[in-house]
Specification:
Layout (H helix, E strand, L loop, with lengths): L1 H14 L9 H16 L3 H24 L12 E8 L4 E2 L3 E11 L2 E12 L10 E10 L11 H7 L2 E7 L6 E4 L6 H16 L6 H9 L7 H10 L9 H19 L3 H6 L2 H19 L4 H18 L6 H15 L7 H17 L7 H16 L1 H8 L1 E3 L2 H26 L4 H26 L5 E3 L5 H14 L11 H10 L11 E4 L8 E4 L4 E4 L4 E3 L2 E2 H12 L7 E4 L4 H4 L2 H7 L5 E3 L11 E2 L5 E4 L2 E7 L14 E5 L4 E4 L5 H10 L8 E3 L11 H7 L3 E4 L12 H9 L3 E4 H4 L2 E4 L4 E4 H4 L5
């Protein structure tokens, strides 16, 4: 069973290698092959693994076609469209907008079947999951930012079957069509429970986590709090997962069995342990339903139910068998779950526990086993932590040893008991929830102290899958039983990641990277021993900015430990927004800007024309602004030229024609450059003909956002570059764009990492 599940998984993963989706008839053809193997092959057992692989591939292919069946016609993208359907998730509400998934059943007066993510700005309506609405909305296709080390939003959306995003336009046609209490019944119960919790639990730093532990919704949680969890390796605790379900099921088993055996009339009809097993299964199902049947809870419920059903039937089942059944069950429910981090972390964690605990001789009792589980998870998940998050925590063992008993045995039971009491006594239920929040607040202080230790986390690059595999082998050998002959060979398999050094330019060379930060700008210039960041992208909300989500992960992916110079060209949000987040992740040795008053915390100085320096044989020169041009908004942007003996780059910020004229008059001899980052994202307020002629670039790169409201780059500007014979790239079509001066080579991240979805 274990090998069958693993080969089924491999079949699913193989489809991910395709850059286009094979014809759907391949799924039926492969199924025919499977049936032929089954009925025509004399030796069926050796062919089971081939069959599992083909079944996994064909099932994922068929499932993918179901997800891709509906899409927005190109001619309707960005235009007002009348849609109707059902609110499919609990709406997330903040100070600016309400966001939710909407299941469309009618699109532009035609039948449709698709899931879209909508936002409604300053909405006063109390939206309920399951209600049927009609909206006028502008929709666009799913388009995420593509960068080395960054999060793949397109893969996440595809896995969740989200086919478009958009926003609702204020219109008299926006109206509630019907209220259906049966539709999305579980989610309606979850939303009602969330409302009750929010009404009876005072707002605090940790109160959103109480809601998360009750129903799995994580709205209102700050980025800083998430970082504390990552730095302490405890992020798995603050969502309903296998640990919580297992503990609560075990508690219910013990409670019901203890009560049952004390009532003779019940014990005669059904053994107490059987009654406890049934209650434990029901508890697992109920708690998983409260979490919206998230992927980790699916795995936990399947495994627990397999164990308890085997117990009821008096059948012995091995842990690996239950794990394999859970793996197969989750993949059958959604084969695209392999695109999520939670899939790999969930199944890897349980596999490690089984491997690290089963088959060992121990006389140290329960607490020894719990301590060993913590050690196994803390050590065993290091490769996955580096692979997925580019970091691992040195304080994970200590933090989890404190947090797991506190959360599992105190906070979660109090939270669920408080939620149950809300049905009978709002006052008592509220007091119970407040008690859970107070205890969580004390725990949070401990986690914060641990997270802020300067040695708490280590950031490391997992450059490729071969090094990941080698590191996993090292962990498996290290966790092998005492006396295992190959145990200390684990050090050999650790050598690749220990000795790995990120590629850096040679003396006199540089690498330029224009990151895909949507409608904004962030560029990175690397030399042999130095790193410069030119702008940090926009901040899009209190909990989301490009400095944290794009720039910092990219810098980690190239092995950066510090930023030698941060240049903020000017004060617009799309250039300065992510700068504060960068300071939380990297030491910034120096900051240059045209607006030092907006970033006082970095102790910046002005970027003034004429300032120049050399790093590792590469020349850097500011061409603009001057002291008398510092109060012109866009036209005060820092302009930086980077060059070596063969190549040159001009970074222009958001300068417009006024600044371009000034540069023509004062810096004419310094303007010629091979590569230019387009001034002001390609706005028609820039790109004077004489300015472009003076620079005479071979390439121009446009930092722009998908379907941005400014319509950058402007068609007239594109035509100007075309007439000059300039090769044009933009971050919408190409993702992150990189140039290596040593190889004289351009790398385009999106085309090089194309997926079939």
């Amino acid at each position: 069973m274990r090998l069958f599940s693993l080969f089924f998984l491999l079949g699913i993963l193989s489809l991910k290698l395709f850059t286009f989706l094979p014809n759907r008839f391949w799924a039926f053809f492969l199924l025919i092959i499977v049936l032929a193997i089954k009925f025509l092959t004399q030796r069926w057992k050796p062919m089971r693994l081939v069959t599992a692989f083909l079944l996994g591939f064909s099932w994922c292919l068929f499932y993918s076609y179901l997800h891709l069946a509906w899409f927005i016609p190109d001619d309707l993208v960005g235009k007002p469209i009348l849609i109707s359907g059902v609110i499919a998730t609990i709406p997330a509400i903040d100070s600016e907008r309400t966001t939710f998934l909407f299941s469309i059943n009618e699109f532009n007066h035609q039948h449709a079947n698709g899931l879209v993510k909508l936002s409604w700005q300053y909405n006063d309506n109390h939206l309920r999951v399951g209600d049927q609405w009609q909206f006028v909305a502008r929709l666009k296709k799913i388009h995420g930012m593509m960068n080395p080390g960054g999060f793949d939003y397109e893969a996440m959306a595809f896995q969740e079957n989200i086919r478009a995003t958009g926003y609702i336009i204020e219109s008299n046609d926006n109206k509630l069509l019907a209220t259906h209490s049966v539709n999305y019944l579980i989610d309606r119960i979850r939303q009602s429970l969330a409302d009750e919790i929010n009404q009876n639990l005072p707002i605090s730093n940790t109160s959103p986590w109480i809601t998360a532990l009750a129903i799995g919704e994580r709205q209102g949680i700050s980025a800083e709090n998430w970082q504390i969890l990552r730095d302490t390796g405890t992020n798995h605790l603050m969502a309903i997962a296998g640990l919580h379900i297992g503990l609560m099921s075990g508690f219910m088993f013990a409670l019901v069995a203890a009560i049952w055996r004390r009532i003779p009339a019940l014990a005669v009809k059904l053994p107490a342990q059987h009654a406890g097993a049934i209650a434990a299964c029901l508890m697992a199902l109920i708690y998983s339903a409260l979490a919206g049947f998230s992927l980790p809870t699916q795995r936990a419920v399947i495994m627990l139910c397999v164990f308890f059903v085997a117990f009821l039937l008096r059948r012995k089942i091995l842990s690996w068998q239950a794990w394999s059944i859970a793996l197969l069950g989750v993949l059958l429910l959604n084969p695209l779950s392999v695109l999520t981090d939670s899939f790999w972390l969930s199944f890897a964690a349980v596999a490690l526990i089984i491997y690290g605990v089963s088959g060992r001789i121990s006389t140290h009792g329960l607490w020894w086993k719990l301590g060993r589980i913590q050690w196994v998870i803390a050590l065993g998940l290091i490769p996955f932590g580096i692979w997925l998050f580019q970091q691992f925590s040195f304080v994970s063992f200590i933090a989890n040893s404190i947090a797991i008993p506190c959360v599992g045995f105190v906070i979660v039971p109090l939270t669920l008991f408080g939620c149950a009491l809300l049905l009978f006594s709002v006052k008592l239920g509220g007091l119970m929830l407040q008690l859970a929040d107070k205890i969580l607040g004390l725990l949070w202080k401990v986690l914060t102290v641990l997270a802020h230790l300067h040695w708490a986390s280590w950031y490391q690059v997992m450059p490729n899958n071969w090094i990941l595999l080698s590191t996993c082998v090292a962990v498996i050998l290290w966790l092998s039983p005492a006396g295992f002959p190959g145990k200390y060979f684990s050090l050999i398999f650790l050598l690749p990641i220990i000795l790995y050094q990120a590629t850096v330019p040679k003396e006199g060379e540089f690498i330029l990277s224009l990151l895909d930060v949507g409608q904004g700008l962030s560029s990175v210039i690397q030399t042999k021993n130095h790193l410069l960041v030119f702008d940090a992208g926009p901040k899009l909300g209190s909990n989301f900015d490009m400095g944290e989500s794009v720039v910092a992960p990219f810098l980690r992916s190239i092995g950066a430990r510090k930023i030698d110079l941060l240049v903020i060209s000017h004060g617009d949000n799309d250039h300065i927004g992510g700068s504060e987040a960068l300071a939380n992740y990297f030491p910034i040795l120096e900051t240059k800007t045209s607006v030092p008053g907006k970033i006082l915390s970095f102790r910046p100085t002005y970027c003034l024309a004429g300032e120049n320096w050399q790093w590792d044989g590469v020349n850097f020169t500011f061409l603009f602004p001057t002291l008398d041009t510092l109060n012109l908004d866009n036209n005060s942007s820092c302009v930086l030229k980077v060059s070596n003996q063969l190549h040159s780059v001009l970074l222009t910020g958001d300068i417009e024609k006024k600044a371009e004229k000034y540069l023509l008059a004062t810096q004419l001899n310094n303007l010629p450059s091979e590569i230019m980052i387009a001034p002001h994202h390609g706005s028609k307020t820039s790109a004077l003909n004489d300015f472009l002629t003076a620079i005479h670039p071979k390439m121009v790169w446009f930092p722009v956002g998908y379907l941005n409201r400014y319509h950058f780059p402007n068609p007239s500007v594109i035509e100007k570059y075309h007439e000059l014979g300039v090769t044009q790239y933009d971050t919408v079509e190409d993702g992150a764009i990189q140039f290596s001066s040593a190889e004289n080579k351009i790398s385009l991240y999106r085309p090089e990492h194309k997926h079939y979805w």
